[in-house]
Amino acid sequence: MSIxxxxxxxxxxVAVVSDRLDxxxxxxxxxQLQAAVARGQHRLVVDLDGVPFIDxxxxxxxxxxxxxxxxxxxxxxxxxxxxxxxYVLEITMLDRVLxxxxxxxxxxxxxS
Amino acid sequence: MPTILExxxxxxxxxxxxxxxxxxxxxxxxxxxxxGKGAPLxxxxxxxxxxxxxxxxxxxYSEADxxxxxxxxxxxxxxxxxFEDRGLPYQGEAEAEGTPGGLAEGGFGLALARRVVDAxxxxxxxxGVNTWSLxxxxxxxxxx
Lengths: 112, 144
What we know:
The structure holds two protein chains of two kinds. Chain A is α/β, with parallel strands linked by helices. Chain A has a single domain (2-109), classed as Transcription Regulator spoIIAA (2-Layer Sandwich). Chain A has helices at residues 26-38, 56-71, 83-92, 104-109, and strands at residues 2-9, 12-18, 43-50, 75-79, 100-101. Chain A has a five-stranded mixed β-sheet. In chain A, helix 1 runs parallel beside helix 2. The relative contact order of chain A is 0.18. Chain B has helices spanning 16-35, 41-62, 92-96, 109-116; strands at residues 2-11, 66-74, 78-85, 119-124, 130-137. Chain B has a single domain (2-137), classed as 2-Layer Sandwich (Heat Shock Protein 90). At the A-B interface, helix 2 and helix 3 of A face helix 1, helix 2 and helix 4 of B.
């Protein structure tokens, strides 16, 4: 698993996550996203194009980051979620909370 | 006759999820060979997602050293993932708190597993073996 963060501006960042987002990787993803929020980048886009699989641990990490972003006055959007990720978001009804966009640009446009 | 298409023994550590997904990849290839076509994506997603949740629960809570996974095709009509470990018995109360859909950050793994499969069963044998069984039906098979 890897996660890299790219600053868009002082309050906005794009996180690119690769590989499965599960028990093995969830804590690291949550930690990195919350660290970005702590640095002031409370408007997050999480690019999940490289994530073939997510489970409840991965969802928990995303929910944790979303809550941190909202507490800081920002938000978090999902971009480029794959079919298994979309399936799990739909089944859990978390697609109502973790808003998905087809691409990163569309997710960033939400903040502009 | 059920056909065991894949078996693997995994250490009860988070790194074991790599081995679980490798076994699942092999299983889906074997199922495709058996059926003459790949299983539908939603069937694959359902069993793989539920299997990951059960494995994660065993790793987190059972205190077992290892667990066994068998991936089984029942005449190409039902697909099953069976987990066995010799750890602590499953405590139902611990997971009852979580349901998918809220803003909980955890505790809803088993609820998610139950939601995606057609049948989920747990048994604790007299000789201390926990067995989890997850079953998904292939399209065209009536639910039990």
